[in-house]
Amino acid sequence: MTDAPYHRLPVPLSERNWGGWAAAAVAATAGVASWSFVVGGFSAYYVGAREGTATMIAGALIGQLLVTLSQIPPVTKYGIETLGTTKPQLGSRGAILALIVQYAILIGWNIVLIIFLGRACASALVAIGLIGEGTSASAAIITSLVATGLVWLLLQSGSSSLKIVSTIVAILIIAIGAWMYWLLLDTYKVSDILNASPIGPNEGGRLTNYATGIELLMVSTLGWWAYMGGMFRMVNGAGKGAVPSMVSLGFGWSAIGLIALYSGLVAGEADPTIWMAAVAGPVAGIFVLIFVALANLGSALVGAHCAALGFGELCPATRNLPWNAKVAAALVPMAIVIILFPGAFYDHIGTFMAFIGILVAPIIGIQIVDWFVLGRLKDMHVPSLYWHDARSRYWYVAGFNPAGFIAIACGGVTYILLLHPVTFVPNSDLFQYTTATLPAAFIGGIVYWVLMRGRPKN
Amino acid sequence: MEQGTDHRPGVDPHLDNDYESQIAALDRAPTGAPFKTKDYVFLLITGVIIPVILLIWGWS
Fold first, then answer.
1. Which residues contact B41 (CB under 8 A, 6 or more apart)?
2. I need a labelling partner for A176 at 20 to 30 A (CA). Which of A204, A326, A353, A412 fits?
3. CA distance A275 to A390
4. Collapsed DSSP state (helix, strand, coil) of residue B25
5. Residue B48 has what DSSP assignment?
6. Residues of chain A with pLDDT under 50
7. How far apart are CA A224 and CA A215, in angstroms?
């Protein structure tokens, strides 16, 4: 088993050599990126500084708790990737739904990060006079493609490069992040930040906007579900995964996002590459650019790694591909979007992510029920995850588990009944008391339990 | 390692015999340690108690 390339089979227990610190570094590297600023900036529309501090951190921790419970137990027990963990719930073939969702999250966010990085680099080149404004768009595309190539290069050695690069990047981004906090609080009075009003709250009242702030971070945090297998399959125990998951991912990315919340409220600008250069000069702009480059590259590296792993676990045809082909499956779509329509994609990322959230919440709900209520984790038949025929215990009906799909549909409908996923305007007064993510996960889990409880465990 | 197709009915023809035996061996492979009580306590504190306290503070 140890002779097989690591990406084709579960990681053997003897080779899972990431301790808690290594997992924390990889998780922190993945967690902190420009998406923190995007979410922080969105939060500034709905809540002020005090409310936003509470909703961002609490929403992220609650969301990460759900992600942790659904992914850490199976991934660390068996050394499998996220896609593999969904086969007991969706079926050997039905897991393709999970692959589509996972792949869309990973590639979609990677595209955003790399485009963001390209634009930041181009802005810096314009600011220092190396290129003119007219060539900024081309420069952004070129630097984005260079970054994509760098990710490919770093992924040549698989998880070992991930661990090394992430440790270095995590230290640097924490240091620069702390400096960004200091600069923000040194430039603006704390009282000004606390007294700043939300930019564009919903009309439903304070509780509705408070719930919206919580929902924004919860549903965004659920996106980590797609990354968990790739990050934590190298950890040899669930306990070693719990702290990095909750602290590095849950708390870490929201803590950095608070910078954008506060700057969005008091300066009207959430993007640090803009407001920091404006208040502290070009040197500060260079440091922020370094932060963006490290953070976004680190996260894109983790995302591409996870996407390549997930693609490989879909079926024997993809599993037998060489590692470079799987990495290409992750990076080529990125390159195509970066070249052909970066602006259109970047401007609609909110819509894209909202529809991903509708599916991930119930998937997480059914997984938590499957492991902890139905007790199917301890009896998981791992060979069945790699058989794509009737030998698999997860073959169900022609490779699909109807219970899983019905449950996901019910959870998704629940989400939409409570909250419009694109406009983030509540569709029901109930939303202000429940959010949308929690009921969607709960309903998905309950329906799955009802439909599956009569079955033999495996 | 023998390359080739497996023609058994109902069996995926893409698998080779060596890989097939590796998959079968997964059933007996050692597994990682599950959550302990202290891990559940940590998750309860970070995932429920702290968020509730924060949300009460933020609302007040």
1. none
2. A353
3. 58
4. helix
5. I
6. 1-5
7. 15
In angstroms, the CA A148 to CA A142 distance is 10
Cβ neighbours of B35 in A, within 8 Å: 72-73, 238-239, 242
What is the residue extent of each domain of chain A? 4-78+96-360
pLDDT of B2 reads 35
Q: Identify the pLDDT of residue A457.
A: 60
What fold, for A4-78+96-360? Hydantoin permease (1.10.4160)
A413 phi/psi in degrees, rounded to 5: -65, -40
Query: Which of B12, B47, B48 comes nearest A316 by C-beta?
Result: B12
Q: Is the Cβ pair A1, B29 closer than 8 Å?
A: yes
CB A107, CB A117: distance < 8 Å: no
Distance CA A46, CA A52 (A): 8
- Write out the two tokens for A141: 């595309």
> A239 and B39 in contact by Cβ < 8 A?
yes
User: Which ipTM value was assigned to this complex?
Assistant: 0.88
How many residues are given for chain A?
458
pLDDT of residue A2: 28
Dist CA A238 CA B33 (whole Å): 6
